Amino acid sequence: MSSTEAYREPEPAPAGLGPRGTALWAKVVGPCTLDPHEQEMLEHGCRLADRLDALDAAVAADGVMVDGARGSKRLHPAIAEHRQATLALARVMVALRLPAGYADSGASSTGSTPTGIVRQAQRRVGIRGFQSMPRGA
Fold first, then answer.
1. Residue 24 DSSP SS3
2. Considering just the CA atoms, what is the radius of gyration of the chain in Å?
């Protein structure tokens, strides 16, 4: 951090996050400076991480296979939901555009702080999110 930049405490984790969501929040917000819309996306991702823990607990308690309507065994419904929440969490993290190694400590070879490196990488130009095909393709 340069001497002209003021030190700013990381934003506290939102209320109601579980252990996994709080850990994810701290891991990202500690070294990164996020805009308000990015914080909103990160909060959504943290809640998805907590939901994944709850789904894991449900499968651990009930087993992978549960009784179906006619007494037959079927896959626990939480497994399909887990798959969907995992994909959603991955999309949220991609949308945040966090560079690889964003939580690394130490300085780069240029002497920048990790936060400075992250800030530069977050400001890349280009398409964010879903891409569409050109018309007539």
1. helix
2. 20
pTM recorded for the entire structure: 0.68
- Burial class (CB within 10 angstroms; exposed 0-12, middle 13-18, buried 19+) of 97: middle
Widest distance between CA atoms in the chain: 69
Q: Give 83: exposed, middle or buried? Use CB within 10 Å, 0-12, 13-18, 19+.
A: exposed
Distance CA 122, CA 35 (A): 10
Query: Do the Cβ atoms of 65 and 75 come closer than 8 Å?
Result: yes
Taking the domains of the chain in order of start, what are their residue ranges? 19-121
pLDDT tens-digit readout, 10-33: 789 999 999 999 999 999 998 778
Look up residue 95 and give its two tokens. Answer: 């949308």
Cβ neighbours for 87, distance < 8 A, ≥ 6 positions apart: none
Is the model's pLDDT at 126 over the cut of 90? no
H-helix or E-strand spanning residue 2:
none
Could you give phi then psi for residue 102, rounded to 5 degrees?
A: -65, -25
